[in-house]
Every structure is written in structure tokens, then in C-alpha cells.
Please model this.
Amino acid sequence: MSAVTASSPLPFASGSSATPNAALFTCNSCGVGFPTPDMQRRHMKTDWHRYNLKRRVATLPPISAEIFAERVLQQMDATRKNEEKLSFVQICRACGNKRFTSAGAYENHLSSSRHKENLKRAEQLGLREDDDIASTISGARDHSPDWSVASSTFSLGEPVQPPQYHAFGFRDGRVAGGSKKTLRRHKAPSSVTTASVTGDDLDSIIDDGASDFARPSVRSAVSSVVAGLDAEDEDEDIDSIIERKLQSAVKLPINACIFCSAQNFSDIEATVSHMQHDHGLFVPEKDYLVDLQGLINYLSEKVSIGNACLYCSFIGRSLNSVRDHMIAKQHCKISYDTEDEQLEISSFYDFSSSYPDDYEEEDDWDDVVSEDGSAEDDAQTVQVANVGPQRRTESNLVLDPTGLELSLPLSRLRIGHRSLARYYRQSLRPTTEPREGQGTVIAASSRQMLAPISRDPVKERLTKKDWRDQRDKQNRDIRREQRYVNQQKHYRDPMLGG
Amino acid sequence: MSLQEIVIDGEETVDTKNALISIDSPISLKYVAAGRIAQSVLSYLVREITERRMTNVYDICHAGDSLIELETSKIYKNVDEKGVAAPTTVDVNNCVQGYSPLDRDSAYVLSNGDIVKISLGVHVDGYTSLVSHTLIALPTIIPNDQVAPATGVLADVICATYLATEAVTSLLGTVLYRYENQLGCYGNRPVNGERIREIVESVAKTFQVKIVPGSAVRRIKRFLVGQDTVHEVDIKGYTWGSISIEAMTDDPDEGDLKKMIDTEAPAEPGEAWLVDISMCTFSGLESDLNKKNGLQLSRRTLKPHRDLKPTIFTRDYNRHLSMKLKSARGVLIEVDSRKSVYPVHLSALSTSGAALGVAALVNAEIMAPTKVMMIQGSPAPIGARMRTTVLLMPSAKHVGEVVRLSGGSIKPSWVHSEFEVTDEEIIELLSEKRAGVRVRNIQGIAVNMVKDDVQEMEVE
Model:
């Protein structure tokens, strides 16, 4: 969205308060009038008009051109900030070139004991922590098209006036419950336009929420709880709220249970086993979990500082209230159902070993090199190795359009997603597409069936007349029989036959 | 998928996949490949019969089918659907269709003087070449010196069939020739079903033979070559009744057949046509003939053979019924996945208990049998059949040509008939110049059975 006001015609009457003159060519959705139809037509093509149309669909009052322009500028600002945030990439050389895509995760990592250990070892080896160890790469992150779409739109549900308050709540679509509670606590203005958003806008909000959750840390755990829905939330306010939260929060030590007051376990394993046995906490995908401490740390901060339930969107007033909630509702578990929830804790996992290409890379490399017969210097071989598995994947595996089924065309084997396991277990008859010959034959034959039945009006009339005659004859017969019924001398039971 | 969608798809594919633009186009090449195999296998079988190496009908049919499978497996490796489009049948004397025995011991052995009709078909990706050829069994090796040519009614019927086929082929070719000169059509009349009927019936009248129901000169399309189970509409050409579809009347001007055949539509360049003409001698009653023209046998005179059970079956894809019998389901799966929409020989099915399964499927009308049909009458009539597939191939540079996929360039048996064609137009069509039509015959290549197959046959 570019600067809209520059290209849009100046409205003669602005805002809903102005009564449009009868002689003017008006635009009802924006509440403006124009002296010529040409200007009105040009107005219809502006982004401002489109935005107001969308608001109208959402039964919201129109906004004036100035506010719209302001909002566009704000959105562009926010987009730029988001981009900067997303392009953040840190690589920790000491811990085997581990990548971090958010500042929070990186800070969290720096404070972890594993990093300190690695650092010590690296120092012993003669490396020193300086720019070499932690180098910042900017702009390395790819922006997916979804993301860029999401960032270029903003919610329809914004208030008409420039905001002077914040609506609190989660940003991942579970808005209603959280925002109500927080509003009551913070005594925010009572009239908040609840977001009744549609289509892309909703997607964009969910996307934003997901990207926030994707890089958890102390800060993001809190900010995810505290951050408002609106894009115009000023950073200072959020910061101050977080500061307040952090100050008032009770920090749980790593060897303390998240759900009860049990403390001073010998190590983190003991803590986890306690939570598992006594509270039923299940850590998903343990095989791929690489940073157990980080995960537990994140969870305990979410509970202790954010006072948020691990399973639902409940936010307690205090640590005790959220603990009570989790135990009473049996919410002592990590929500791991949706993709967003999985992404929330994904940075503590390393799934790369589950990719088939990963552990076969050595072999692939050999294969590809031997096939090519050349590639002797290092640079070339590395390139080939990178290309190899991808190419193989493309040629051999076919992904279903739904993304839930992989098939090997040669052996006709299919690998289905486990979420559909119950359907595969039914061993349904495979729905094969008809082969070309069958399709042709069926099409050629069925054409005859589909051929319209020719209707001759004369014939049709005659047929109807036949039916009518037959019916009349039947009626006549019945009437005649009834007439003679009373003239018979002796009663005869019709059951015994006439 | 709704029915409507299928129809729309079908129409689109049929149109784009049936247009013959030039001899080098992929579609033409597939046609030619199928024709070449059909021609090769046919000439191989004819040679084997005339040189008296094969006399058992089972051997001939088995060799034909396995050669087709072998040769088609060598070409167009990426094409899934290819192979036998019509199982090899050897119909002797008054048999007109469908004799392809299952085992060697009970199979018919050709004897001297039998009139043998070999029919087979090959398709590559649905582009089909069907061919039939008639010969007198076990002819002498040097015909010129010692033995006189066959004469009498035998000669008449072979001559009539052969000449009618050649005349119709030339007539179809005139479409190309006159097309370039913008004269409209040969002899100032369009080349359509009606015209073809006149020519064939005129030849039959001259030679005093009758046309057997099931003869057809019609346009063929990809996968659609007149299988019994497919009820097409608006077929270009002409059909003299039908053998298999019982509901059809003899008269093509009435009933279902009239709906199916469009006798007025003219042939056009870029089409593939099937010329399938069978005729027979006749010495029966007038009532056994079609009343309208008196040149065509009534369908009543054709009866399925009492003892010979059908061995060739065609799947009807418009019927869906789940079968109880395991072998029936097995056959259905095999036919749907490995065979095509063409007739299948029972011995080509690998499912155990295929015969039983097929019988169940026939009862459920999911498969239609090709019955062994005989012409009734005494003395037993003798039928002859010629079948050829031609492409009316337009050309950008010069006048187009008729590409005769199969059935050309194989000499007919040496016969001498006492009748002669008198019609001027037909004489011109049959002359050396063929009324100016260029005909290119696809030549066969040398084919031979794989050694394993031969050994297997010897063991049997």
C-alpha cells in the first residue's frame, strides 16, 4: 500500500457527520461526495475506498482519508520493524554453529550451562569469545510469500480514533477470553471494538501470532501474554508492562516443580521425572529433544512470569492461581496438537536426524560423485552433495496435493500421515482413476444416455389423452358396479368372492 | 466426478487425440507402429499356413497373440496401454467370428480347401489397427503350373470381398484428392456412408453374394473401434447390422443402429477409417435376406455354435457391480488394471479360475462374450472377410495419401471368378491409377517367435 492520499481525490465532505449534497456524486462507504462522476470513479479505485468497503462488510464505520493514511504509514513502519526482527540470525560457533533466529532465543542460549561449558572448552582450545564466535548475519532469512502478505495488511477491527489504550490477549486467535480478563484488570476503556475479521486479515493475525511463538524466550513468553492485538501498540508501553511483570514475578529455579511447591530436586532429570509421575507432564518427541533444560526453563517462565496455563489460554492472576487451574483442570501438559503449538517449542528440538536425507548424505554424496565421474575439488563436491538428495527426492517421491501422502510411483507404495491412520487401517478399496481407454469408452458410451429424449408435443398430448381415457373408464366401471350392489337378492361376502 | 465432467473431458481428449495432421505427428506414428506389427504378424501367420507349418488353429491363434504381445512390448516403453486389440481368431468356412480355441487337442486342424479368415488387431496407446485376411487353406506351393485357380462360388465370394474392400479404400482416398482441388467430392457426390453402401452392395450384386451382418465401413477413433460393449453415437460410415447386439434390427435405417450411425456425414481428411467387409455365398430362402435390399443376410441366419464356447470377452465399463466370486473379482481387477478396453482372450488372463470368474461376469453382464457365430444353411454357406485400417492422411506439400496400416500388400489367394465388375465408377476405383489416389501400404517386418515359446509349443 503506497501513499494513498496523494493519489486520491480530495473529498469535499469528509466524515460521517457531513451531509452529502444532493448534487454531488457520493460514495456511501466512505461518506464523501464529488462534483464530477469522473472523480467519483477514480475514488472507487483507491485503496482507501477498498478498505472502507471491507469495513462496511464487517459493519464498522468508515474512516477518513487522513486516518487511513496514518494507518498505512504505521503499518509500513511495523512491517519494517518486523522484517528487521525476522532477519536476525545469530550463529554460536562455540556450540557447533548453532543457528538462532531470534534475539530472545540467542540470549537464552548464551545463559545456558551447555553454552558456558562449550565456551570453556573452546577457550581451552585457544578460541576466544569475540566477533568470531558470535557473528551476526543479517538478511539471511528467507521471507515466505505468506509472511509478506501478512505483513502488508492490517486488521479491520481497529478503532476509528487513534488508539489511546491497549487490548490485551494472545495474538494467536484465542482472543476473546484473554482480552476480557486483562481488560478488567487494567481498567481499560470499556468500549473496545472486538475484531470481527475475515479472510486474509484473520490469517495475517494468526501468522503474526505464530511468528511470535516461534522464537520463545523470557521476553517473548511474557510478551505473548501481554502483547495487545493492535498493531499500533507502542513498544515503550509493552516494555514497561513487561518490566512490571518481571519485577513482580516469582522466578522458579530450574530444580523446582512447575506445578507444585516441591523444590530442590537433585538435577533437571529428577524434576522432569517428578512432573511426569506426579502431574502427568508428557514431554513430546523426547527422542529429538536437544535442549531439555531450555524447554523446562521456558515452561517454568511461562507459568511463573506470564502466569499462563501450559495447555489452554488461561491466564492466572498469580502463580498460585495458574497452578490451581492447571491441577484442577488436569492441564499439566504441553499443548502439542496444532502446528503453532508445535512451533512454539520447536527451537528446543532438532528433527534433522529424522530426515531420510540427513543420515544418508554420505552415501548420496558418493553415489552422485561416482555417477558424475568428476568433482574432485572440495567446492564442487559440496555443491553436488547439496543438490543430490533434493534431486533424488524430486524424481522418486510424489507428494499428494493434500500434503498428507507420499507415494513411490515405481513400487506403488504409499506412505500416509499418521493422522489418517484410522482410514488406512480400514483397507478401503483404492480409488483408482480410470485409465485413458476406460475414460474414453465411458465418455463415448454415456453420451447416448445423456442425449435428450426428443419430445413430440402431439405424441405427448395423445399419451395424456390415453391416460385420461383409461382413468375415466375405470371410474365409470366402479360407478356402475356400485349401482348394482344394492340390487342383489342375497348378501354375499365379498371376501368369499363374487 | 460427475457424469457431465466425464463427457466434457472425453470430448476434449477425443478431438485433440484423433486429429491426424501429418505422417510425422505422434498420433500417426503410433498408428503406423500398430499397423506395422499387425501387418508383420499377419504375414507371418499367412506364410506359416501356406507353407504348411501350422495347421492347428490353436497354434495359429497362440502364435498370433504372443507375437503381438512380444512386438508391442518392444516399442513405446513409456506407453502403458498397448498390445492386443483383437485376439487372433481363425474362422473357417461358415464361421464368421470368434473362433480362437483354448486348448490344442480339441482345436480344429485346417484341411485342404478350407477357406480361412485370420483376424487380429494391435493397438498402441489406443491407436488401433485391425486386420483380417481370407485365404484358401493349404494352397499348392507352385500355383501357376500344376493347379488351376479356385473357381466357382468360392472364387466369387473372395473376389467380391477383396474388390469391395479395395474399391472402398480408393473411394475414401478420393476425399484427399478432391479436397485439394476444391471440387468438393469425387463424382460430385460426398463420400459418405450412403455412397459406401452403394459401392459395396453393387459389388455384392455383381458377384451374386450376400453381405454378412457385422460388416462395417466406419470411422474409428482412439480406443473406439466398434467394440460390442461400447454404444457410440454418430459414427461416420455405414454398418450392415450387427452380429452381437441382439436388440438391433437388421435394417440400419431403423432402431438403435440408426441412432448410432450417421450415414450422411462425409469422410474428411485426417480421419482413420476401418473397412471391414465380409460376404458369403447363399443358397437359402428369400426370407432369410434383408427385405429392403435383398443383399444382406438376416441376422436370424447367424447362430452361435452349439459346442464351441466363447473364449473372447469384452469388458463393459458402463456396468458396475461388486462380485461375490473371488475369481470374478480377480478377473475384473486384472482386466481393469492390465488389459484395456479391447476384447480379451481367456488364455491371456493369469487369474486362477479365470474361466469361472468370466462366466460369472458374463452372467452379470459386466463382460460381453464374442460368440462363435456360424452361418446356417444347407449347403453350408462360405464366408470371406477382408478388413483393413486406413488413415486419410493430409499433406502440406502435395495431395495427401491413404496410409493403409494393415491388410495391403498381402496377395489374396489365386482365384478366378466368372463375374466382372461392370460399374464404370467402381472400375475406375479399382484400376491401376485408383482414381488418382495415392495409397501407401505399411510393410511388415520379419518377426519370429521367441525360442522359448516354440519349445513350449513342441512340448505341448
Observations:
- Chain B has ten helices and 17 strands.
